[in-house]
Amino acid sequence: MAENEPKPPQLDMPLVLDEDLTKQMRLRVESLKRRGGKRQDGEKLLQPAESVYRVDFIQQQRLQFERWDIVLDKPGKVTITGTSQIWTPDLTNLMMRQLLDPAAIFWLKEDSVAMDWNEADALEFGERLSELAKIRKVMYFLITFSEGVEPANLKASVVFSQL
């Protein structure tokens, strides 16, 4: 792109904590524990340090992944794992096979101001989002919090250029 050409407009799409779905998935775990039941073969049960987030694609076509915009307000680590388009959380339990690889991992070290991340995997995952946006209005993510952070410490979004 020539220097004097205008940059394409960018869309910042936040990852929003889906409190209802996180609660629903936690209730599933509690129900199984109370009844002494077992998870379905291959079912992914939500762990205490995991929460469900969503991105509502305000535009689905002509998106090009630009970057992740991840901010932790204190040292710690988050792992962002996408879910496949075949998961319909209102109808089915989340299965392990519906978790997408690679995950994007971001961390903030003590005495650091800049986020570190697994760049190659995070970029590959981000580029897949552009394709998934074409067929989905909403995408769900499991975010795992570790090393002392929790949902209140995270601000996250994915930034796309509009082509």
UniProtKB/TrEMBL annotation:
Q: Where does it live in the cell?
A: Cytoplasm
Q: Which UniProt keywords apply?
A: Acetylation, Cytoplasm, Olfaction, Sensory transduction
| Biological processes, Gene Ontology terms | sensory perception of smell; signal transduction
The organism's superkingdom is given as Eukaryota
| Annotated Pfam families | Olfactory_mark (PF06554)
GO CC terms of this entry: axon; cytosol; neuronal cell body; nucleus
> Which Gene3D superfamilies does this chain map to?
Olfactory marker
Q: What does this protein do?
A: May act as a modulator of the olfactory signal-transduction cascade.
Listed under subunit, the entry gives:
Interacts with BEX1 and BEX2.
The family annotation for this protein states: Belongs to the olfactory marker protein family.
This chain belongs to the protein called: Olfactory marker protein
